[in-house]
Specification:
about 400 residues; mainly alpha; Serine Threonine Protein Phosphatase 5, Tetratricopeptide repeat; Rubrerythrin, domain 2; 3-stranded antiparallel β-sheet; elongated
């Protein structure tokens, strides 16, 4: 059945079209009016922001605000720029003035408070920033407030509060903070270890492993506690767990493991002509790690231990094997050192070794994966960007340019 067409719709359609055209014209006129009401310096400031000329942008927006003092948006932009350029005093004054002297809606007041809290944080006024962020925990700023509160507690080394904030932030955002929480527990354990409260330290480290089963640092510290308590077997057991977590970190405990093996049967107090049983076990364990994971840090410890315990001939064989497997100036330096101790004519070998040593220098460095910071020693937390476990456990060879940059940093 055909549907009968209503011809009167032909009269209505032009009317709808005309109304739509009029509405569009009104919107365009309103947009033009709003744009022309903004001072030219506003657009100049935007252009300067695009080109990262922040200090010049401050001047441009300051002039724009002078011409349009009632603009909330200009106030917020200028306050953010003050904070970005390090003028936190001006940012704080601007935002406080807005809160005290302007009639604001609740959303506007909240927006200014979040800006003021960030001003306090940037200025290092953590108590004031904390108070404001705590008051902003409700509503759409909850996650932002939690993130800033977490950063405050980390900077102030308030690890218990940091654990609470990270746990709430994880629940709120769905983003995992297990690695960070485990590190916070490790920091609590360190504080307890300083006070020799081994029970509290162990409890914190077990909680760290509950938070993150792959937290290498927890097992490192558990081994340190056992070592302090003169229990080398327990210390070795804890450090061996690292192989099941992240074997790349074994180099951090290799020297300590070897010492604990030497203490295992009391050989340090009872030297013998033959290689002590505990030290022999330790060298065997390190050899297994070197062959399995080929870590340069492990090789360095194994070479030095072999040289001291078994003499230059065994050390030379070890260095030669490593040089064949993976040619490097470090291995060549070790081989030359061992051969020098064996040779009748040592002068030339010593000269060659010294030349190699001068050429390579101390070029090994740890590089942060997040910000590229270079460090001569391993840090669990990057000193530059504060990221946790961002430095790889194995040092890498730096270029000459990198060495110069590293020396400037340190």
């Amino acid at each position: 059945m055909l549907v009968e067409f209503e011809y009167w719709w032909l009269l209505i359609l032009p009317l709808f079209f005309t109304l739509g055209w009029i509405a569009a014209r009104v919107d365009i006129k309103q947009l033009i009016a709003e744009s022309t009401s903004l001072p030219a310096t506003y657009f100049k400031g935007l252009n300067l922001l695009i080109t990262d000329q922040y200090h010049k942008a401050v001047d441009a927006f300051s002039e724009a605000l002078h011409q349009n003092k009632d603009s909330l948006e200009l106030h917020l932009v200028l306050g953010s720029l003050f904070r970005r350029t390090g003028e936190t005093d001006r940012a704080i004054h601007l935002h406080l003035n807005m809160l005290e002297n302007y009639e604001l809606t609740e959303p506007q007041s909240t927006s200014i408070k979040i800006e003021l809290a960030q001003d306090y944080f940037k200025a290092g006024l953590y108590d004031r920033a904390e108070e404001l962020f705590l008051s902003l925990r409700q509503g759409r700023y909850d996650q932002a407030a939690l993130r800033h509160l977490l950063e405050i507690y980390v900077k102030e080394r308030e690890w218990s509060q940091a654990i609470t904030m990270a746990t709430e932030l994880e629940r709120s955002s769905g983003v995992s903070y297990r690695k960070e929480v485990a590190q916070y527990y490790c920091e609590l354990a360190l504080n307890a270890m300083i006070s020799q409260d081994w029970l509290a330290a162990r409890a914190a480290l077990n909680l760290a492993l509950d938070a993150n089963k792959n937290c290498v640092r927890a097992n490192v510290l558990l081994g340190d506690i056992a070592s302090q308590e003169q229990d080398p077997a327990a210390a070795i057991a804890y450090w061996k767990r690292i192989e099941l977590q992240k074997p790349d970190y074994l180099g951090l405990v290799a020297q300590k493991m070897l010492k604990s093996y030497a203490l295992l049967y009391g050989e340090e107090r009872e030297p013998r002509r033959t290689l002590p049983k505990g030290l022999k076990e330790g060298l065997s364990q390190l050899t297994h790690y070197v062959e399995s994971y080929q870590l340069s840090s492990l090789m360095g410890v194994l070479y030095e231990a072999t040289l001291q315990a078994e003499g230059p001939e065994k050390a030379a064989k070890l260095a030669r094997k490593e040089l064949i497997r993976k040619p490097s100036l470090k291995s060549l330096d070790q081989l030359l050192q061992a051969r020098t101790l064996l040779a009748d004519e040592q002068h030339d070998l010593q000269l060659m070794q010294q030349t190699v040593r001068n050429a390579i220098g101390d070029r090994a460095a740890y590089y942060c994966d997040q910000c590229g910071f270079r460090a001569k020693q391993y840090h669990w937390q990057c000193p530059a960007c504060n990221a946790w476990e961002s430095l790889p456990p194995e040092p890498t060879e730096a270029t000459i340019r990198d060495i110069k940059l590293l020396n400037r940093q340190t």
